[in-house]
Each structure stands twice: as structure tokens, then as C-alpha cells.
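Chapter summary example: a protein plus biotin.
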Amino acid sequence: MFYNGHMKVIHLNEINSTNDYVKKNISELDHLTFVYSDRQTSGRGRLQRTWVDSGDENLFLTIVIKPENKSKFPYANFTQYLCVILSLVLEEDYNLIPQIKWPNDVLINGKKIAGILAEGSVRGGELVGLALGIGVNLNTTHDKLLKIDKPATSIFNEIGTVTDKTVFLEKLYNKFCLLYDKFVCEGFTSIKNSFEKRAMFIGKQISINVLGEIHEGIAVGVTDEGSLILKEGTKKNIYYIGDIL
Ligand code: BTN
């Protein structure tokens, strides 16, 4: 572990999943520690999917989140927070134009560049923290991207230059901490504008899968809690979970 003044980082060579590592060691880990691994042997994605390790030139990271005030803590919106933070880094430091796909995918030119997965860590029946995981395709080459089952891209694929993993990590860390207090205090409303501005699905006819059920309609926007508002016929319905197809 190294601590360069302000940033707490644990760098692993290989692990099954950085999310599992954080969940297992949550009691010993400090709030806002960034745990990353060069290789991940069984990385997990949302909805029982896997997150393929496409080489140590990419980022496999889990952020340790331990709430100070457990009753008023925006647990459900951390993936959206990270999605906005990543978008800001990609825009400001890499000149990219990220699009957000509800609930928390980040795309460039319609192709996925990162995946985010938050998991609760429970001790004695009580939620003690979150393992906020993110995989970012930094330097995956075009050939390797074609092997991923869904359209995917990387920073390298978009801008043609190699991204230094530790530099990227520091940029992400700085942005994450900069807007953190406001986010914890105000919840999703503090990032709602930033989220909606980049939300490519708003105003469009979409289909969503909610626990195996398909719903179709026009995405009107998101609520102050980050849920999707879908206009189905004349009725507006609100969805807390699901996936845009
Ligand atoms: C998804 O899009 O389905 C979410 C993918 C999340 C992948 C990251 S990589 C680091 C962390 N450890 C894991 O096992 N998963 C997350």
C-alpha cells in the first residue's frame, strides 16, 4: 500500500475480484481507499454477468465507501455518482464526449467504455459499507475489443494514445473527492443536471428489462432519486431498477 499525501491506494497484482477483496476486508479498510488490481481472475458485472479481464493495461478498481451517517446516506446512487465523475474525467482530461445510459453505463460513440457495480458489505446483519467497483477500458486494443460480446471501446481506441493507469487513477480520485461531500449531503439532486445532460436515452423511445419483464415507452427523464421516468401510453411510470435494451 502507498499513501502519497492525500490518496490511499492498495495495489494488488492479482485477485479474483477487487469487489470481493473489499467486501471481505471492509473492517480493516479506510473509507475512500482505492483498491486496484493488475489482473482479475473472476471479475463480476451486473446481473450475474462476468467482467472479462482484457489485460493489465486496463483498470479494475473498487472504492471503499463507509458511511459516517448511516440513516442519511445515498447508497442507491453511488453508481450514478461514479458514472458522472468518470464522465467528467473523460471530458476534461481526454477530450472525449461520454454518454450515460441509465442506470450507470458510460459509453463513447455508443460503445461501452466502463462498467460499474456496487455491492453492499454486511456484518452481523448490518450494512457496514459499499464496495464500489469500476472497470475502465484504458488501453484495450481494437482486436481485443472485438472479442467482447457487446460493442466496447477504450480510451486508446478513441484517441490513439496510451493512458497511464496511475495518472488516470489520480484524476479519478481527485474528482471523486471534490464533489463527494456535496453528493453525500444532497444525494442524487447534486448530480442530476450533470447526469441528465449526458443521458443519451432521454426523449427517445426505449425498451427496458426490469427483472425479466420488458417495458416500452419514451424516456422522459430521471427523478430526484435517479429513477427512470418512462411514458408508457398516457401513463408515466417510475423504475428504480432495470436495464435499457
Ligand atoms: C457491468 O457493467 O456489468 C459492471 C462491471 C463492473 C466491473 C468491475 S471491475 C472491478 C470490480 N470488480 C469486479 O469484480 N467487478 C467490478
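Key point: The longest strand covers residues 111-123.
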